[in-house]
Structure formats: structure tokens, C-alpha cells
Amino acid sequence: MLQLKNINSFYGNAHILFDINLKVEEGQVVGLFGRNGAGKTSVLRSIMGLTPPRCEGQILYNGEEISGLPAYQIANKGIGFVPEDRKIFPNLTVRQNLVVGRKAKRENKKWDLDEVYAYFPKLKTLENNLGCEMSGGEQQMLTVGRTMMGDPELILLDEPTEGLAPLIAEHLMQMIIKIRSEFNISMIVVEQFSPQVLDFLDICYVMEMGQIIFEGDPRTLKENEELQKQLLGVG
Ligand SMILES: Nc1ncnc2c1ncn2[C@@H]1O[C@H](COP(=O)(O)OP(=O)(O)OP(=O)(O)O)[C@@H](O)[C@H]1O
Ligand SMILES: [Mg+2]
Predict the structure, then answer these.
(1) Engineering a disulfide at 225: which of 73, 94, 221, 235 sits with its beta carbon 3.0 to 4.6 angstroms away?
(2) Which numbered ligand comes closest to the C-alpha of 43?
């Protein structure tokens, strides 16, 4: 469904990503790991058309070349992005923040407020609160909910559980996995490495200094602590 072929991305003159090849098949959850600054966010931003000034190489989405398109067109093709910094509108209510996520195209709509509230009942109770009044965990539910309002087929999640207390992080991850299995949504998840995260991935990639240094079966990584240590400094 998504294929990156030899992607090289630049911020200004700085060359950040080097020959990235990555693939997501329909229904798959792909994990992307790497230390701080490895280039994980830049990969997601390159897919979304957000790396100025340029991204070279091919990005195919359902067989169609999408690199070079403006971000809103890429989003309209069915790719949803949950950015690292959440991007909640502080002066809009929870409900208004969700409505912003609706796309103009409304046929075959699967997600609207009722669906988001069914997965995240907490958001219903906070419906009229302002974005700036929410806790980190609530904000992250809201960002995921807002992305779902656009009915994506593929979602890119950039460290969705970052900064959340362990129980809240686990709950959010369970909801994300539930949404994925009930709606057959494909995902790329950037997360801090933990052996538990590997359990729900189909494929995982590890990056270092703008390159992919491991690609494979999550079980290979899970069973090999030496490899975890070598690739990620953990284990
Ligand atoms: N807007 C920018 N302008 C210039 N350089 C940038 C910009 N954003 C990121 N970089 C650089 O690109 C490299 C990759 O950064 P990126 O944010 O993709 O890493 P990351 O793996 O997501 O890290 P983290 O785990 O800290 O979120 C880093 O060296 C970073 O300093
Ligand atoms: Mg990042």
C-alpha cells in the first residue's frame, strides 16, 4: 500500500535521510525505532510532504506517486498523521478540535463524533472543554480521534505514548490496536523501544543517523537482546 524507494530528505542544506526504503502492506502495523535524532520523525514528515525544501526518491501510495504533492492532498488520499507535538487547538473545544479533522469528501464515511466517543468515552465527557484544559493523555486521545475523523486508511503515529504515565500509555496503545483490527487500518508507529511494543508489530525497522540499519521480523529483535543492545543501546 505504501512504498518508499531511496528517499533522501533535506532540511535546508542538511542531508537528513539517506536512501530510505520502507514498505507497508495493507493491514500491517510497521514499527520504526531509533535513538533521538535518528530520523524517525523525518521519515513520517517526508511521507506527508512536510520536509522542506526537498525530498528525493519515490513514494508510492496504492501504486500512485505521491512525493512532491502538497500535504493536504496526501492527507486527502487517506493518510492520517498524528504528529509528535499533538497540535491541539488550545482555544477550540474538544468537539471543535474533532470536527476540524473531518475531510470534505464524505462518502463511505466510517468515522464521526459517535465513533470517536465510542473508543474514547473520556472525550465525550470533556466535549465542551477547551483544548488547553486537557491533560497529556487526553490530548493524545484527542489527536488520535481527530485523525480518525478524516477516515484514514493508513495512519502515521509519532510517539503516541510519549510523556504519558504507563497505565495511560498502555490504554491508549490498546485503543489504537483495537481501532486497527476493527477497521483494518494500516499503521506506521514510531515508539520508544520496548519488548512489549514488538508484540503488536508485523515488521520493524531500526534507524540510525538517517539510515535504516535493521529491517525484519519483530520476533528476531525480541529474542535477541544482544541485537537490541547493538541497535538501540537497550536490552
Ligand atoms: N526542522 C529541522 N531543521 C533542521 N534540521 C532538523 C529539523 N528537524 C529535524 N532536524 C534534524 O534531523 C535529524 C533527524 O531528526 P528527527 O526529528 O527526524 O529525529 P527523530 O528520530 O524523530 O528523533 P526523536 O526521537 O528525538 O524525536 C536530527 O539531526 C535533527 O537535528
Ligand atoms: Mg521524532
Answers:
(1) 235
(2) 1
**Number of domains into which the chain is organized:** 1
Tens digits of per-residue pLDDT, 109-158?
Answer: 889 999 999 999 999 999 999 999 999 899 999 999 999 999 999 999 99
Q: Among residues 72, 81, 1, 19, which one has the least CA distance to residue 207?
A: 19
Among the atoms of ligand 1, which is closest to the Cα of residue 34?
21
Which single residue is written with the C-alpha cell 473508543? 119
Looking at residue 106, its pLDDT comes to 64
- Its domain, for residue 45, covers 2-86+154-232
Cα–Cα distance measured from residue 120 to residue 116, given in angstroms and rounded to the nearest whole number: 6
Q: How far is the CA of 67 from the centre of ligand 1 (A)?
A: 20
Using DSSP bridges, classify how beta strands 54-61 and 2-11 pair: parallel, antiparallel or unpaired: antiparallel
User: What does the pLDDT look like over 76-103, one tens digit per residue?
Assistant: 999 999 998 878 999 999 999 999 998 8
- Residue 94 belongs to a domain: no
Helix axes 136-148, 166-183, angle to 10 degrees: 10
Q: Cell numbers of 211, please? A: 539510515
In a domain, 136, yes or no: no
